[in-house]
Amino acid sequence: MSNESKKTVTSYYGALTFGTEAMRDRLPKEVFKALQETIKAGKKLPADIAGVVAHGMKEWAMEHGATHYTHWFQPMTGTTAEKHDAFLSTERDGSVIERFSGEQLIQGEPDASSFPSGGMRSTFEARGYTAWDISSPAFLMKGGKGMTLCIPTVFISYHGEALDEKTPLLRSMDAVSKAAIRLLDTLGIKGVQRVITNAGPEQEYFLIDKKFYSQRPDLVMTGRTLLGALPPKGQQLEDHYFGSIPDRVLEFMQEVEEELFLLGIPAKTRHNEVAPHQFEIAPIFEQANIASDHNLLIMEVMRKVAEKKGFALLLFEKPFAGINGSGKHNNWSIGIDGGMNLLDPGDTPESNISFLVFLVAVLKGVLKRSAILRASVASIGNDHRLGANEAPPAVVTVFLGDLLERVLDAIESGKVDLKTEKQILDLGLGQVPLLNKDYTDRNRTSPFAFTGNKFEFRAVGSSQPISVPNTVLNTLMAEAVDDLNAEILAKIEGGMSKEDAILAAVREGITATKAVRYPGDNYSEDLQRAAAERGLPNMKNTPESVRAWTDKDTIAMFVKYGVLTAEEIDSRYNVRIERYVKGIDIEARTLLLMVKTMVIPDTSEYQGDLASSFNNLVAAAESIGLSEGAFNSQAGHLRTLAEDLSRLIELTSILEETIEEMEEQESELDKADFCAARLLPCMNAIREVADKIEVQVDRSRWQLPTYSEMLFEH
């Protein structure tokens, strides 16, 4: 794209997206208008215009070189899926024609038996459907020698169960919109047609040279290093964060951004992260379902460009033990479509009231549903990251900042009358609208922090799709908003004025949510003690966390708001347990492979050479009258290596037995608990000894690329 790169970004932004401009150019005026109104209202595409839209989309795609189309969706695998179909069609007379109908645009039929269903579907039940998410624009994806038209869709079974992560997200967005409209009506803000949730995921990642990656079976098979001694220098000098970006990496970033801009993805920020070879890309905020699609595309584009540039992209949450891991800070907000952000205070008392009401609703929702919010980010990778000193703990708390805490304290004490702006200003509350100018400090240790006009959910893992955490956020918010609205209406029915009822409900909410507000260092032991004292869930691993999906009250919430059925929830619970067990099993077997075929042979060979050299040295010494005791240091080194190798071989046998014992557990949940309690500690014990051996063996004898090479060689 050398010629295009000389142009301004705006001249080619979205060129590979069938967005507003492409629609306007390709569709009849009345069809374009109807389609835009449908998208804005969040409704289904009328059947009578689907064919016209499909024809315009096909013509646009073919002019860009596309020969195939695919319904692009998000199965419960954590990645995306696609099945390509050609536009080519045959006529009765044997002639061929390119055809793409409205029916093909709206609905597809992939094989549903090949994707995780968590028990909702039998293996032989293969039929599934994809349906176009009209609010997320179609796009052209480069690959091979041409382009493919990709149509973002949902994925459901023959009986309508959601087999993907997109369907619940869309349902949750609808649920929170309806609840928020009801509350806004109570607050006196009438006529709101739609409330939307926005998301902006900051994507962290590692880049290492592909030659090192290909020589590490653990990275190839699992995404993380199962062995590896720390280098003398890591991140302790803090000289990488926001540092000068290496030219080779910058070239990668620039090409990624060009590809993203063509796809209409608003990449905004790029920089070095804290750890060596760790970086970040962040977009401008978008509607949550579009942000979800775009984040998956960002990861896909980065993988392709990394491969092209000779890099390996590492998205695992903790690819290097002892080195900072990667997250995906999910910035979340809620606002009136085309209007104000409900988490950004306005210029009038009414706006300030709505801000405080929705702020309290967030606090109530996070406190009540902190367990399922924690479960929404549970994964093998995040288990290694959460609770370390570069990520939030497993305890979900909320950080508001000093100014907002003072405001809430003042309201709780009854010193504030929210009826007039003057009284708000007297208490400093009139300064709340300036929060977007950073009157609130950041707390990088908080898992859920208010950052001026949004909340930053920092616990999301770098490899995870954001659909699930945003689905949970939206649903708990819908419930909290409805609960708060009911409280206000009950007080009004009890004789209070609307203003007094709102203030009373806000005041009660402030008092009730103190337990979840934590202004301090979430890395500290004080937080662990506070969690125990306040009764906050502290689920340190995935098997503990995913049990939240089985909580009856949590299930009732999802069912009530039409986000997930009981069967769909059960399937997600089963899928998460199964993927955890399979993931740990792959890690354990990969570790066995590496130790048996690389570490033990390398160490044994070096030990033999070292012993031979020592014996020759002793023999030579005797010939000149030196005693064997003169070489005690060398003998000690040889003895230590021999002892460590013996211990490693012993632990390897134990690991093999532990894997077999895991397979004998009765249920998948039993296996998951066993993995966390027994298998992972066994693997860690092997790693400890192997890493100790690594620094004793001649580098030329050690097959595996080291941390020093992977993290410091460009």
From TrEMBL:
<dbReference type="InterPro" id="IPR008146">
    <property type="entry name" value="Gln_synth_cat_dom"/>
</dbReference>
<dbReference type="GO" id="GO:0006542">
    <property type="term" value="P:glutamine biosynthetic process"/>
</dbReference>
<dbReference type="InterPro" id="IPR052725">
    <property type="entry name" value="GS_Type-3"/>
</dbReference>
<feature type="domain" description="GS beta-grasp">
    <location>
        <begin position="67"/>
        <end position="160"/>
    </location>
</feature>
<dbReference type="InterPro" id="IPR008147">
    <property type="entry name" value="Gln_synt_N"/>
</dbReference>
<dbReference type="GO" id="GO:0004356">
    <property type="term" value="F:glutamine synthetase activity"/>
</dbReference>
<dbReference type="InterPro" id="IPR027303">
    <property type="entry name" value="Gln_synth_gly_rich_site"/>
</dbReference>
<dbReference type="InterPro" id="IPR022147">
    <property type="entry name" value="GSIII_N"/>
</dbReference>
<keyword id="KW-0175">Coiled coil</keyword>
<dbReference type="InterPro" id="IPR040577">
    <property type="entry name" value="Gln-synt_C"/>
</dbReference>
<dbReference type="InterPro" id="IPR014746">
    <property type="entry name" value="Gln_synth/guanido_kin_cat_dom"/>
</dbReference>
<feature type="coiled-coil region">
    <location>
        <begin position="645"/>
        <end position="672"/>
    </location>
</feature>
<dbReference type="Pfam" id="PF12437">
    <property type="entry name" value="GSIII_N"/>
</dbReference>
<protein>
    <submittedName>
        <fullName>Glutamine synthetase</fullName>
    </submittedName>
</protein>
<dbReference type="Pfam" id="PF00120">
    <property type="entry name" value="Gln-synt_C"/>
</dbReference>
<comment type="similarity">
    <text>Belongs to the glutamine synthetase family.</text>
</comment>
<feature type="domain" description="GS catalytic">
    <location>
        <begin position="165"/>
        <end position="599"/>
    </location>
</feature>
<dbReference type="Pfam" id="PF18318">
    <property type="entry name" value="Gln-synt_C-ter"/>
</dbReference>
